Amino acid sequence: MDCKNCKKIKNRDEEERKLLINRLKRIEGQVRGLIKMVEEDAYCTDILDQTSAARSALGSFGAKLLETHIGTCVKEGLKRGEEGLIEELSETVKKMLKS
User: Fold this and answer.
1) Cβ–Cβ contacts within 10 Å for residue 56, how many?
2) How far apart are CA 35 and CA 29, in angstroms?
3) H or E element that contains 67
4) Is residue 33 situated within a structural domain?
5) In terms of Cα–Cα distance, which of 72, 98, 99 is closest to 85?
6) Residue 10 is assigned to a structural domain of this protein
7) Which listed site, 37, 53, 61, 82, has its alpha carbon 20 to 30 Å from 70?
8) Distance between CA atoms of 65 and 28, rounded to whole angstroms?
């Protein structure tokens, strides 16, 4: 997704940005490892084990981002009286639970 299509933006400090990007780069490395395993005809259960690890890492990334979102975006938005934040958060959590 391109941020040109985003409804809102969040200005992250450099530390938060760096932590999120580092997590995503580790996940990217796991996915590249999966590609290599398939290319090298690794055994199915070995690939599935690594798939599970990558899925878990992505889930942890999402959980951390959600925690940050609630503690910053939602908290500050509620203080400003922004309408619809609870509904937006609820929909976001529902999407996360589906995956």
Assistant:
1) 12
2) 10
3) helix 44-69
4) yes
5) 72
6) no
7) 53
8) 17
Taking Cα atoms as reference points, which of 90, 98, 35, 25 lies closest to residue 57? 25
1, part of any domain? no
Whether 52 is covered by a domain: the verdict is yes
Per-residue pLDDT tens digits of the chain, which is 99 residues long: 555 667 788 999 999 999 999 999 999 999 999 999 999 999 999 999 999 999 999 999 999 999 999 999 999 999 999 999 999 999 999 999 986
Residue found by looking up tokens 């290599």 in the block:
36
CA distance 17 to 90: 24
Query: Which residues span the domain enclosing 67?
Result: 15-98
Task: Tell me how far apart the alpha carbons of residues 64 and 36 are, in angstroms, rounded to a whole number.
Answer: 28
Query: Domain tally for the chain?
Result: 1
pTM: 0.84
